[in-house]
Each structure stands twice: as C-alpha cells, then as structure tokens.
Amino acid sequence: MSSSKLTMEERDDMVHMSDPHNNKAHSGRHFKTYFLILLVVIFSPLGNVLLSTGMKEVGPMTFHTASQFFGIFAQVFTSGAIWLGIASLFAYFVSYMLVLSWADYSYVQPATAMGYVIVALLGHFVLHETVTPLRWIGISLIFLGVIVVGHTPPRTTGHS
Amino acid sequence: MLKELVLLFLIVFAGTGGELCVTRAMKKIGEVKDFRPASLVQTIFRVLGVAWMWLGVALMALAFFSLLGMLSLESVSFVVPVTALNYVAGALGGKFFLGERVMGRRWAGVFLVCIGVTCVFFSRR
Fold this sequence. Notes:
Chain A is mainly α. Chain A contains 6 helices and no strands.
C-alpha cells in the first residue's frame, strides 16, 4: 500500500490524458455538458432567490401556537414564488444528477461554486439587498474554497 | 440572532446528516445499472425498505423548512453563502460517518470556506 499515493497521481494523469477536449468525436457530449452546467448555474441561485422572495411575502416565520404554525404552512404552500422556487431547485437537482452521470465531480464542482457569486449578484441587483465589501470578500473565499475542495480525487473509498 | 444560529445549525446539520444517510442507503442498495422503468420502480421499493433512507429524507425536509425560515428573516445574499458550512460538515461527516479519506487539499478548501463564512456572518449589518 506504500505506492497508493503514486497510483492516485497516475490515475489523475490518465484522466487528463483522456481529456475530452482532445477528441472531436466528443463535441456533442461537450455541448451537452456545457448546457447542463449552464442550467445548474442558473437554476440553483434562481431557486434560492425565488424562495427568498416568497418568504419575504409570507413574513417572519414566528409562531407560538399550532394553529399559527399551520397558518404559516398554508401561506408558504399557496405562494406562487415558493412553488416556482421549488420547481427551479428541482430543475437544478435533475441537471446536476444528469451531468454527474458522465462528467467528473471535480469538473462540475467549480460551476456550483459560481452559484454563491450569482446569488449575491441577484440579491444585490434584483432584490436590492446591500452586499457590503466584507460580504463580497467572504463570498470570494467560499468560491475559492469550493474550487479547492473540487480539485481533490472524487473517490477515496473502495479501490477495486 | 439566537434564532438565526439555531436555524443555521439545523440547515447545516440536518441537511448534511440527511445527505449522509441517503448516501449510506444508496451504497447499501449498490450501484444502479439498470435504468428500465420496471427495474427503476423495483429499485425505488428496495430503497424505501432501507431505514437510513427514511431518516435521510426526514432530515432533508427539516433542513428545507429551516432554510425557508431563515430566508423569511434574512437576505438571500447572507443565507446562501452561510450555508456553505455544508462543505465543512460534509468533510467531517464523510470522514467519520462514511469512512472516506479526507486529504490535506480538501481540508485547505474547507478552511477557506470557514473563513469566507465567518466574513459573511460578520457582514450582517
């Protein structure tokens, strides 16, 4: 097992060598990948922004009695924005699962990191939220962190 | 403030806990190779027989309602970045609950996410 690290690097090299960029026959799959990643990047932040819009209409979720709780529950699930948000997150989930069925996790991951930046942009320009410089710095660090996490081998258990 | 922390805790831990339970349930089922409708239905029924799946779905539902609660109180440019703590909980859960080997590089990324989340958290007014 002393060569396990080397094998991991070798496997990594092999992944790079079989890069679909070098193969024209894969251009169809390439388009499909970009298209689905685009859907992932659009639907995840959009879903969260829609949920946020819906919940701002419903108002703060505070309740003290069971009937208040069911009142809020009814309000949440009769809100158009909430249902659009759920539909959008569902579209995100399906696109994400589909693209992961052939593309590397570490290839798709940086795209999902973009979601954090896009949600802040949407919050700022569409919902007119104040995004302070400190918050932008934080979001950039999260973006970097997610990319670094994505650049590690996607599987570390079971080697056969 | 206390309410936000409780909701954040639920979003992160119920969400990650749910995903870990679902992962464990799916690993128990084994790799899905046959995508014909009849066998997919069969797979779904087998999945429903695994207790981990029920626990996972319940936890994920709890996380979703906590997210709705958080969004009713705070702006979306605060809530979504702060939930990136999922990556931290995911790395810890992967290591201790699923026995994955989490290496240096991944910890470095997790560390960056932590600093980022701290910045976002203190940017709250």
